[in-house]
Amino acid sequence: MRNNGERPVRVLIRRDGVDNIRMVSPVLVCAIPVQLTADPVPNAFTTGDKIVIHSSLLRMARTDAQLALVVGHKLAHVTLGHLDKQRANEFLGQASGLIIDRVLLAATVWTGGLFTRELGRAGRLAFSVDFEREADYVGAYYAARAGYDLVGAEEFWRTYSLEIPDSIRAGKTHPVTPVRFVQLQKVVAEIADKRRRNVQLIPEIRVADVDTAPMIPAEDTR
Q1: Residue pLDDT tens, the chain, 222 long
Q2: Could you tell me whether strands 51-54 and 34-37 are parallel, antiparallel, or unpaired per DSSP bridges?
Q3: 3-class secondary structure, 221
């Protein structure tokens, strides 16, 4: 099947001594499985080879479309290479910190690897908010292309902010929920406009600037 690609395959089925030849047409599907795990902490994450959804998110996602946005968001992290970029940024931060630690050690100042740890952490978090907004944008397209109606799906972020009030004002690694709410509104409107114009739903790797009406290019998200 792997060598045949998407071309139909002849399959011989023998049942009760009777042979039947069937033609099977392969269907291209996502290779990343989605797992649901029982956990009271609202969260979802990807390891790069799977997507894990905590059961508590089902309480917050009021519709299938809202849940599809969560899955699409995590899938976008994988397809956009965000995990690899974060690891690369962390490595660069650690390398810079290691140099500082060694210079100070040569001057008889023992840091215990402080700069290596902290600059590695800073590198891992670099562009984190940009990555999240990019994944929100592309993930919405994935959900739309899968056939989900995203009208009103931004209400997920309103529910999320009620469950986790700190998300309204704290945004060190993720955008604050009001920003995500407005961005999703704009993405849904963009998708609806493309459908009206019969334009193919292809994400343009952009994020919405909530302070202006149009969509603008994202900053460098290395």
Answers
A1: 777 777 898 999 999 999 999 998 887 777 889 999 999 988 899 998 899 999 988 888 889 999 999 999 999 999 888 888 878 878 888 888 888 888 888 888 888 888 888 887 777 666 678 888 899 999 999 999 999 999 888 888 888 888 877 766 655 667 788 888 899 999 999 999 999 999 998 888 754 443 333 333 333 332
A2: parallel
A3: coil
User: Is 124 within a domain?
Assistant: yes
CA-based max dimension of the chain:
84
Nearest to 156 by CA among 74, 216, 68: 68
Query: Is residue 3 in a domain?
Result: no
Q: Which domain holds residue 182?
A: 9-217
77 is a domain residue: yes
- Residue 79 maps to a domain: yes
What would the two tokens of residue 195 be?
């459908």
Pairing of strands 206-208, 44-46: unpaired
For the chain, the domain total comes to 1
Using the structure block, give the residue that is written with the tokens 């399959």.
11
Cα separation, 212 vs 222, in Å, equals: 24
